[in-house]
């Protein structure tokens, strides 16, 4: 099935608990992913622990671009997602674009869902705190309900993210960029 044998989940590095829960659901696993708080910590993991290994990170598109991006090329930039591939390594980095709190509200709005119905604020600063900073584990019930609703929308963003993640999980070192781009 893939070249990572029994430890594939150790090669997927989400930035926050929202990303962790989303990836676990889309990858259809109960395995613990290697959660790193903050985009710099995701990139540090790619540059250190996983430097010579297949890896997939997921972060927000922040105002200040990470230096790591300078060593990458865009695989695709569509559906509120940017997928980067490192030029010299078999490493991939998803960027949620716009930043997570805006991304969530846009996806919900496009699918006739109201963030307030899930107990969250529509105010971007409050929402960022509620879904990124105030969460301290991936069993948060409210966050899990929100992510379940987003996944059930079957919007193009979620479809693209899921198909790309499953493709990378399956192919890892044998990724064909054209298949990934068009999948």
List keywords for this structure.
single chain, 183 residues, alpha/beta, five-stranded mixed sheet, 7 helices, 40% helix
Q: How is this fold's topology laid out?
A:
Layout: E1 12-14, H1 17-26, H2 39-47, E2 55-60, E3 72-78, E4 81-86, E5 91-96, H3 100-110, H4 124-133, H5 141-152, H6 156-171, H7 177-182
Parallel strand pairs: 1-2, 2-5
Antiparallel strand pairs: 3-4, 4-5
Helix pairs in contact: 1-5
Instruction: Provide the residue-averaged pLDDT.
Output: 89
Strands side by side in the biggest sheet: 1-2-5-4-3
> What summary fits the major beta sheet?
5 strands, mixed
Strand content: 15-25%
Secondary-structure class: alpha/beta
- Span from first to last CA? 18 Å
* Overall number of strands: 5
H and E string? EHHEEEEHHHHH
Gist of the model:
By secondary structure, the chain is α/β, with parallel strands linked by helices. The chain is built from seven helices and five strands, in the order βααββββααααα.
């Amino acid at each position: 099935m893939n070249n990572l044998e029994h430890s594939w989940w150790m090669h997927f590095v989400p930035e926050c608990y929202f990303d962790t829960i989303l990836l676990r659901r889309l990858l259809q696993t109960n395995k613990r992913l290697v959660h790193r708080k903050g985009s710099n910590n995701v990139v540090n993991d790619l540059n250190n622990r996983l430097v010579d290994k297949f890896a997939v990170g997921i972060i927000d598109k922040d105002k200040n671009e990470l230096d790591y991006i300078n060593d990458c090329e865009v695989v695709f930039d569509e559906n509120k997602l940017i997928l980067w591939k490192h030029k010299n390594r078999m490493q991939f980095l998803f960027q949620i674009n716009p930043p997570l709190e805006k991304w969530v509200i846009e996806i919900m709005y496009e699918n006739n869902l109201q963030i307030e119905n899930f107990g969250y604020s529509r105010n971007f600063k409050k929402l960022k705190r509620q879904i990124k900073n105030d969460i301290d584990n991936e069993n948060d019930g409210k966050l899990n309900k929100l992510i379940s609703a987003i996944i059930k929308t079957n919007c193009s963003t979620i479809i693209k993210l899921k198909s790309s993640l499953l493709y990378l999980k399956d192919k890892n070192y044998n990724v064909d960029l054209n298949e990934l781009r068009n999948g």
